[in-house]
From TrEMBL:
InterPro entries: FAD-oxidoreductase/Apoptosis, FAD/NAD-bd_sf, FAD/NAD-binding_dom. Its cofactor is FAD. Keywords: FAD, Flavoprotein, Oxidoreductase. This is FAD/NAD(P)-binding domain-containing protein. Pfam families: Pyr_redox_2. One of its GO terms (molecular function) is oxidoreductase activity, acting on NAD(P)H. Residues 1-291 form the FAD/NAD(P)-binding domain. GO terms for cellular component: cytoplasm.
Amino acid sequence: MISRENDLPYDRKSLSKRLFNDDNSHSFTLRSRDFLEKRLGVHLLLGHSVRNVRPEEKRIFVEYKQKNGGGGEPTLVRALEYEELVLALGATSKRLQGVQGADYLEGITHLRTLNDAQQLSIELNESAKNVAIIGSGFLGFEISSLIYPIARSVSIYGKASTPLTLLGSEVGNEIRKFIREQGVIIRQDSVLRSMGGFDRVEDLKFRDGLTAIADTVIVAIGIMPSTSILMGSGIRTNAEGYILVDEAMRTNIPNIYACGDCVNFPISFNSGQVGERRINLPHWQVAQYQGIKRNWERGKGRSISIKIFF
């Protein structure tokens, strides 16, 4: 198991739900190192980043920092051979594009990894008074409901006319009403133009002329697949970079599979016919099911279909 993060596999979905009230990072760990290595026989390569994939050689190249106990840690590259390869590359947070100040001001954060959450927890407990959340989706609303008791003000700014567009306007508006009752300010049809401040963010300016005060900005505008390492590998992706897989989580290259937030996969609706539509659904239960599905079909030689549950 190769991971660019230094942490053992952890419960990512809980980061936006309870970290600000829990400074014990071990409470998020799914399994101990002993369980993974001794009981399951998993060889862990943490802190290793995949540099590229070469299917024609059945090798991947990874880079890592050499621990030498000194000040400098040189980056090394090593090649690993495989018989079967499962790409569970996940996704990264989208960054603000074309927004003045977003690249250099302090106080602008994201929430995707355990390290992100730990830094955000420190930020909220030590510095934040007026918090602005850019993005009115699931993550933005979860964060707002968690931090409003410890911040002076919490404001959510969304580009769409209604929040939580995936759930439809009726449900989105009801949730917006509930969050507003907690004291959170919610503004829709708000497109961020620039951020101002000397070293740290101090204010936000929007295209409609609105100006808002903020000393901490949490960007929650969606994710993008972490598939740039596949460039030149021959593994097929769609225009957005998601890996194209079939109903057995197979890519177009033999012995290479993919699952989780990085894939575009076929689903079935009421008729039960697989392949009616292809989607990407970044949800932990879908990712978990796809991993089970891949192993099931590998062992049983038959297919089970993925159905949408919400």
